[in-house]
Amino acid sequence: MSATADHAETNLAVRLGFQPDMVVQEIGYDDDVDQELREAIEQATGTELVDEEYDDVADAVVLWFREDDGDLTDALVDAIAYMEEGGSILLLTPKTGRDGYVEPSEIGEASTTAGLSQTKSINAGKDWNGSRLITPKAAAKKR
User: What are phi and psi for residue 40, nearest 5 degrees?
Assistant: First the structure.
């Protein structure tokens, strides 16, 4: 990968709100995740992603979710439990036409039910779309 492409990937992680020294917990890791995005987040934070076994709160959560992973609302509620107050969740779902695609309406409904607000949607790689979700308290602080 070229230095320019590497810089662009890091900028994506920074645009998503990842900052140096953040603890980022990753949930739903599997063989199909976007390794470049994972590396960009680690480069932006300067720390490795922690897994589901991490036993402290994280500043942010990266949630890889596919249609057959169960109930999205439950997954989001569980992710909130791992997160520092004011943190954010980067929900990553397969793009249209990919195995495990999740309808945008399902993401919106599950986010609202879990008490989260969607701040932006992004193209998070070749096979993944991302939605940045925050708690209403975090949204109020940004105003």
Answer: -65, -40
